Amino acid sequence: MNIKQHNTKKIIIALVLLIISVAVLWGIYQATIKSPVQGDKTITVEVIHKDGSLISFEYHTDREYLGETLTDEGLVSGESGAYGMFITTVDGETADDSRQEWWCITKNQEQLNTSADQTPIADGEKYELTLTTGY
Hints:
five-stranded mixed beta sheet; 2 helices; alpha+beta; 27% helix; three-stranded antiparallel beta sheet
């Protein structure tokens, strides 16, 4: 077997392993992704303003995602981006980008890794929107 055939065989094996790895990771992602719940649900959203004041809102909705509910209710506004809506204003208070302010979304005080548009909701869940300073 010459060197060229040996290198070709290594490349083919590496590609097959790469394809298998991608398939396994995709399967894990699909198994762990949370799907939206259909039907009526009630959620609580707490807004923690810059001054530390807290206002609690309760929403009854048949929407499937947090962003849809918050926008429908007029609680938030923002800018569309590659990862969904970037919330800029909540309950009338706008984050000041020049001061590195942004609205942090948490669920039961644990930070979410999805935008509001990509966060499925279920009955009884509680979310917090906190004006945060510093990136």
